[in-house]
Automatic annotation (TrEMBL):
GO terms for biological process: thiamine biosynthetic process. Keywords: Signal. Residues 39-251 form the SsuA/THI5-like domain. It comes from Bradyrhizobium cytisi. It holds the Pfam family NMT1. This is ABC transporter substrate-binding protein. The lineage of its organism: Bacteria, Pseudomonadati, Pseudomonadota, Alphaproteobacteria, Hyphomicrobiales. It comes from the Bacteria. InterPro entries: NMT1/THI5, SsuA/THI5.
């Protein structure tokens, strides 16, 4: 009987141990720059494929209402990470917001002037005599004067109409404007969703405007206090981006699986496919995602000081805005 009781006690203990929950995953809130669109596919795909869970992370993805608002949320620690326009984050950081980029994903600018393909506007010279819709004070409008300078255009060469983001889209959709300033993977897909028609983007990057765009940011104090978690998050996100690059349609589908009203599979896929080439520059083409170069960031700071309203003191230390220290090493 004693042996039986001992065996029973051991069996009971084993059953209790087996029933105990595994160590709880770390809850992480990621706030996006805007309502979901194709560019965001890797985050949803990484969550759906268990890539974040494998790093001990319980990821919650929240839609945003603009990079400035998301940056404020991260600065206030109401979101752990933000996916934002890095130059927008720089403007907040130079004014004292405790934020830093832990990985720069879009290392080539997605900014462009775009119009319907059938308008046959394919190069800067074709903009002459046309009407361009802009949103005052947004990131693209701030860099627009540099594009004009680089391409020899003058504001008197075309007509400008202004409005908020939706008004700008409607102007092109309804024929009140020939082009709008937008991101190649964002506004172009919104126009296609609304009309079924393709647009052609004249990309700023093709005319010597070298600056970064979207990346991941975190509160500086949060990074210092949670170094291991930041490393795991960046490792998972790097793997998620690499996995999504290989399966664009499946990655886009993961958006709809999480948010059935998040768009249409064709344009989500196309929008994500237009994003992938922006991940790397000639200098980083052989590197894993997020491995931005010091030169790219310095060039971005210099452009933002001259054209984007960034305080000139930012040029004293461009490295204050970002770190690559939490990124996985090659092959890990």
């Amino acid at each position: 009987m004693t042996m039986k009781r001992w065996i029973g006690a051991v069996a009971t203990a084993l059953m209790v141990f087996a029933a105990m929950p595994a160590q709880a995953a770390d809850k992480v809130v990621l706030m996006l720059n805007w309502y979901v669109y194709g560019e965001h596919a890797p985050f949803y795909y990484g969550k759906a494929k268990g890539i974040y869970a494998a790093e001990g992370i319980d990821l919650e993805i929240q839609e945003g209402r603009g990079s400035a608002a998301t940056t404020q949320a991260v600065a206030a620690k109401t979101a752990d990470f933000g996916y934002v326009d890095v130059p927008t984050m720089m403007r907040a950081a130079i004014k004292g917001a405790p934020v830093i980029a832990t990985g720069v994903l879009l290392q080539t600018s997605p900014m462009s002037a775009m119009g319907f393909v059938d308008k046959n506007i394919r190069k800067p010279e074709d903009i002459k005599g046309k009407t361009v819709a802009i949103t005052p004070a947004d990131s693209m409008t701030q860099i627009w004067p540099l594009f004009l300078k680089k391409t020899g255009l003058k504001e008197s060469d075309f007509t400008t109409v202004a409005g908020d983001g939706q008004t700008k889209l409607n102007a092109v959709i309804n024929g009140q404007a020939d082009l709008l300033l937008g991101y190649v993977m964002d506004q172009s897909m919104k126009i296609k969703d609304a009309t079924g028609k393709d647009v052609y983007p004249i990309k700023f990057a093709d005319y010597g405007i070298n600056m970064v765009s979207s990346g991941l940011i975190a509160n500086s104090d949060y990074v210092k206090a949670n170094a291991d978690l930041v490393r795991r998050f960046m490792s998972a996100t790097t793997k998620a981006v690499e996995a999504a690059e290989k399966e664009p349609k499946a990655a886009a589908q993961s958006i709809l699986d999480a948010n059935p009203k998040g768009g249409k599979i064709d344009t989500l896929t196309q929008g994500f496919e237009l994003t992938i080439p922006l991940y790397r520059t000639a200098e980083t083409k052989s590197k894993r995602p997020f491995q931005v170069t010091d030169q790219n960031m310095t060039d971005t700071v210099n452009l933002m000081v001259e054209y984007g309203g960034l305080d000139a003191k930012a040029k004293e230390n461009p490295k204050a805005f970002y770190t690559n220290d939490y990124l996985p090493k090659s092959g890990t």
